[in-house]
Design goal:
The complex is a heterodimer of chains A (331) and B (328). With 331 residues, chain A is mostly helical. Chain A has 13 helices and four strands. In chain A, helix 3 runs parallel beside helix 5. Chain A starts with 13 loop residues before the first helix and ends with a helix. By secondary structure, chain B is mostly helical. Classes of the chains: A mainly alpha (331), B mainly alpha (328). Chains A and B meet through helix 5, helix 11 and helix 13 of A and helix 5, helix 11 and helix 13 of B. Chain B: InterPro entries: ABC_transp_permease.
């Protein structure tokens, strides 16, 4: 998982390493493909266009939150103890959803409520950044404290109740379609493309990965590390704010318990590393991981497997994929 | 604790001392604050309730977590160990078996979780965070399948053997059994981590894994033992939990996960090298428990308590880490 920190490849080992890396990369893809093929043959209705867009839709919320986590991983490395992590991201989305829903209920229009939700998300992100960059608290711990704050504020705002929301924006997001694809899926596609560009094709993204991969080298090259870490956390907060609107759209309300998504989000972001060439967190990898998790949930539903088994089988499959990858990497 | 890491270059001593004692000072301040402003905070009844209901079980789980974090890992499946041990224990008692067997069964279930973690991490080379996350998901399914989706199991009076009940409720020489178990567990982890060769290797593993590997120390063996010990300790917590409430409520162990991680890392603030220690972890647990109890007593509702604890932890850590690094 810490492939970013790997030393330079030894001379003469290039070819072997490349082949084994190809095997790893393909291994995860083959695993994903096999599962899709299995569902295509056994689960009735799996391959219908309606169901396929449904999978994308089901993966949207998890995916965008996992992008936030991926940005934080990219800017701070994936060493869980010493590197960065954002445990507050799911609670942050819950808080933003509460802000949005409560403002809508109080009669403010979407022109106030949507920016308020996004700003809330960014403010929570900035608090994380402040704690990690300025106060130098361990990210795991800093974001844990922020998670508590966000969860508490969400509960205080909503008094632990469901706050229903009705608005044209929510209707468009929930039921609108364009070119036969739902609005929610379009949001996912647009956010994915934008983030792939920012993270992997822009100067900012290159520097972000430099800061996460080798902080000393980045500093020596004149990159201001602190602002990139701040940026990663604020970006994650902005994505949490964006997701909060999508969550409200999907449920037509702000509902307690969004914080529960933390572990699936972590799973998606970490699993995403096996879908990348160098086994590092990437937006594309996280996209595939979110779709993978969404596909599993959808396939189980169609096969009529008892919901008791879903999380266990997901956990086991994630372990198999990761174990196969690390096996290929070490051999 | 600090003898496994090389001496750090000299720093401004007063700042260093301040930053190391910031958490302790904050704890004392918070206790004094609540003693003055929260009615009944210092009453024997409240302190007993605080220790028995808020401290003991979290502290035991956090001790296990301390071992794992000291070794440079993390265990997200402590809740599964707590729950599975609690489940097997209660099921065996309900089936009419004796307490001793039930305790052994519960511990065995927890140790199984530890062995699975150890295999995933050392044999299959999965990073501890992901491996234990996977086990957490699988543990949820195991509990759902064994309880028809998550139905709690309550013991009736008859199923609960009287002598065993007496031990759990009254303890020895007036000290409640859970407290005795906590003291024993703390001593055991203290010796294992701070006073034994094993503990030195474990701490070294966390501080400088490559050095340990090149020194020929058997990393997988030590890692495995750490994860199995953590699961076993969490299993003890599970048995205590279910014997105090005489029931097994599925997924109740999950509540300890983030607090245990938080307490362990808060505890690192008292060591100069920011390393986990038994004393630090216990202080972290007490800090969290006192804050929760005190905020409740001064009349904050659960929602604001959550915010308050977050802000307080944030401030304490900010002061401790901020002072520390200012002069790096």
């Amino acid at each position: 998982m810490t492939a970013i920190a790997d030393g330079p490849p030894r001379a003469g080992a290039h070819r072997g390493r490349n082949i084994s890396k190809l095997v790893i990369r393909l291994g995860a893809f083959v695993g994903f493909a096999l599962i899709v093929i299995y569902f295509a043959f056994t689960a009735r209705g799996f391959t219908t266009p309606y169901n396929l867009t449904n999978i994308v839709e089901q993966s949207t919320i998890l995916g965008i939150l996992a992008y936030g986590m991926t940005l934080v991983f990219a800017g701070t490395g994936t060493d869980v103890q010493r590197g960065g992590i954002d445990l507050s991201i799911a609670a942050n989305a819950g808080l933003c959803a509460a802000v949005y829903a409560v403002l809508m209920r109080a009669g403010y229009g979407g022109y106030v409520a949507v920016p308020a939700a996004l700003v809330t998300g960014m403010a929570v992100g900035a608090l994380n950044g402040f704690a990690v960059v300025a106060l130098r608290i361990m990210p795991l711990l800093a974001t844990l404290a922020v998670m508590n704050i966000a969860e508490g504020l969400e509960l205080t705002l909503t008094e632990n109740t469901v706050v229903a929301v009705n608005s044209p924006l929510i209707d468009t997001l929930a039921f609108g379609r364009f070119l036969g694809i739902s609005t929610l899926s379009w949001v996912f596609v647009i956010v994915s493309l934008a983030l792939i560009w920012i993270a992997h094709y822009s100067r900012t993204g290159l520097r972000l990965y430099a800061v996460g991969g080798h902080a000393e080298a980045a500093r020596a090259a004149g990159v201001r590390n602190g602002s990139y870490v701040y940026g990663a956390y604020i970006g994650a907060g902005l994505l949490a704010g964006l997701t909060s609107i999508l969550i409200v759209a999907r449920l037509s309300s702000s509902t307690p318990g969004t914080g529960q998504m933390l572990l699936p989000v972590l799973a998606a972001a970490l699993l995403g590393t096996v879908f990348s060439r160098r086994l590092i967190p990437t937006i594309g990898g996280t996209l595939l991981a979110a779709l993978f998790i969404g596909t599993l949930a959808n396939g189980f539903q169609l096969l009529g497997i008892s919901s008791y088994w879903v999380s266990g089988v997901q956990g086991a499959l994630i372990l198999v994929v990761v174990a196969a990858t690390s096996f290929a990497k070490n051999s | 604790m600090t003898d496994t890491t090389p001496p750090t270059p000299s720093r401004n001593l007063s700042f260093e001392a301040l930053s190391n004692y910031a958490v302790i000072a904050a704890f004392v301040l918070i206790v004094v604050f609540f003693a003055i402003f929260a009615d009944g905070f210092l009453s024997g009844e409240n302190l007993m309730n605080l220790v028995l209901n808020k401290v003991v079980i979290l502290a035991i789980v956090a001790l296990g977590m301390t071992l794992v974090i000291a070794a440079g890992g993390i265990d997200l499946s402590v809740g599964v160990s707590v729950d599975l041990s609690s489940m097997i224990f209660i099921m065996m008692i309900a089936a009419g078996m004796s307490g001793v067997f039930a305790v052994a069964g519960g511990l065995a279930a927890a140790i199984c979780v530890g062995i699975v973690n150890a295999i995933l991490i050392n044999r299959l080379k999965i990073n501890p965070f992901l491996a234990t996350l996977g086990v957490l998901f699988i543990g949820e399914t195991v509990q759902r399948v064994s309880t028809q989706g998550g139905v709690p199991i309550y013991l009736t009076r008859g199923e609960y053997s009287a002598p065993f009940d007496a031990i759990v409720r009254t303890g020895l020489f007036g000290v409640p059994t859970p407290v005795i178990v906590l003291i024993v567990a703390a001593l055991a982890v203290y010796i294992a981590l701070h006073r034994s060769v094993f503990g030195r290797y474990v701490s070294a593993l966390g501080a400088a894994p490559d050095v340990v590997r090149y020194s020929g120390i058997r990393v997988p063996l030590h890692m495995s033992m750490v994860f199995i010990a953590c699961a076993a300790i969490s299993g003890v917590a599970g048995i205590l939990l279910s014997s105090t409430v005489r029931s097994y409520v599925p997924f109740s162990g999950d509540a300890f996960l983030l607090d245990a991680i938080g307490a362990t890392f808060i505890g690192t603030a008292i060591s100069a090298e920011r390393r986990p220690s038994v004393f630090g972890t216990l202080l972290g647990v007490l800090l969290l428990a006192v804050m929760r109890n005190g905020l409740l007593l001064i009349g904050w509702n659960f929602f604001w308590q959550q915010v308050g604890i977050g802000v307080l932890v944030f401030l304490v850590l900010g002061v401790s880490f901020g002072l520390r690094r200012r002069n790096d």
